[in-house]
């Protein structure tokens, strides 16, 4: 399982997590990638997670270094091969 930094918390989290299984209390939770919100959260050291319903949405969210994790509701999305999805 690949992990990412959870903002400036010093904590590492799975880059793809099932909704409800990751403590996101202090995080900014977005329904989609938002440049202004990502920039502000990054400046504040606040963790950011983005909800994603498809493989393409997961890919778009994780293409942004400010995003700590993509939250999914479909368990099958946990097994995405992002390298394959990105580079073919």
What does the model show?
It contains three helices and six strands. By secondary structure, the protein is α/β, with parallel strands linked by helices. It has a four-stranded parallel β-sheet with strand order 3-6-5-4. Strands 1-2 form a two-stranded antiparallel sheet. Strand 1 (3-5) and strand 2 form a beta hairpin. 26% of the residues are buried.
List the main descriptive attributes of the protein structure presented here:
88 residues, alpha/beta, four-stranded parallel β-sheet, two-stranded antiparallel ribbon, 3 helices, 6 strands, 23% strand
- Give the C-alpha Rg: 12 Å
Q: What is the overall shape?
A: globular
Give me the number of helical elements: 3
Taking the alpha carbons of the first and last residues, their distance comes to: 20 Å
DSSP strand tally? 6
Major sheet strand order: 3-6-5-4
Percent helix: 25-40%
Largest sheet: 4 strands, parallel
Task: Compile the SSE list and pairings.
Elements (H helix, E strand, L loop, with lengths): L2 E3 L6 E3 L1 E3 L9 E3 L4 H10 L3 E4 L3 H8 L6 E4 L9 H6 L1
Parallel strand pairs: 3-6, 4-5, 5-6
Antiparallel strand pairs: 1-2
In short:
With 88 residues, this protein is of the alpha/beta class. It has three helices and six strands.
């Amino acid at each position: 399982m690949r992990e990412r930094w959870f903002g400036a918390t010093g904590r590492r989290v799975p880059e793809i997590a099932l909704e409800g299984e990751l403590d996101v209390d202090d995080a900014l939770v977005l329904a989609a990638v938002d440049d202004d919100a990502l920039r502000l959260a990054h400046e504040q050291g606040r963790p950011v997670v983005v909800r994603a319903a498809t493989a393409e949405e997961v890919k778009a969210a994780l293409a942004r270094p400010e995003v700590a994790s993509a939250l999914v509701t479909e368990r099958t999305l946990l097994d995405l091969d992002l390298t394959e999805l990105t580079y073919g």
